[in-house]
Amino acid sequence: SILAFAFNLIQDKRRAKQERTNALTEELVEIAAEFVALGSKFSTLGEKSLVTPLDEFLPELIEQSTDLIGQHSVLFNRARLVMPQSIQQAVQKYSAACISLTFPPFEESSMSPRMNNYVKTERDLVNALRRLRGLTDLVTTGGIDTQEKRIAFADRVTDELIKTMNENGIEVVDGVKKPRL
User: Fold this and answer.
1) DSSP readout, 93-152?
2) Do the Cβ atoms of 90 and 125 come closer than 8 Å?
3) Rounded CA gap, 110 and 116, in Å?
4) What is the largest CA-CA distance in the chain?
5) What sign does the dihedral 4-8-10-11 (CA atoms) show?
């Protein structure tokens, strides 16, 4: 009976440790999901910096970046409380990539590499979390969705929109809509 008692005690300790690990992993995944959602707001702000004149963009940047960085700080600190060493580097790199999108200069030559780094670090964070849960990495096709690909897609969509508007009696000249009479 002593051996059975010892065996049960060991099993109970293992079970308790596994339950604790599972609970921490679930909490970390929830925090990371919020972190990635917040990161997409940083990305949107970074993309906007490429298409909005600086004098129009700066007031929005100041307002939004202060709020985003505050939210980021809270999520990053929550993640630090529960993340294992195995994903620490991925979290830190993703964090830095997000915040870098709020810093000047905002020219395309500076922002495109930062946007590409953001996309790469997001993918790395997601895969680190998947590995933590015992899942394989996500397979991405065609490499990283670079800023150049996004710009090319936006240009194609804009061209189609202008074509459709012209076909429906709305002439677009230099970005200004003019109804045909």
Assistant:
1) HHHHHHHHTTSSP-SHHHHHHHHHHHHHHHHHHHHHHHHHTTPPPPPPSSS---HHHHHH
2) yes
3) 11
4) 97
5) positive
Residue-wise pLDDT for 113-133, tens only, equals: 999 899 999 999 999 999 988
3-state secondary structure of 181: coil
Q: How far is CA 63 from CA 40, 41, 54, 57, 105, in A?
A: 17, 13, 14, 10, 17
Which residues, in sequence order, are CB contacts of 127 under 8 Å at separation 6+? 90, 137, 138
In the block, tokens 């919020």 appear at 34
For the chain, how many residues are written? Answer: 181
pLDDT tens, residue by residue, 83-107: 899 999 999 999 999 999 999 888 8
What phi and psi, each to the nearest 5 degrees, are found at residue 135?
-100, 160
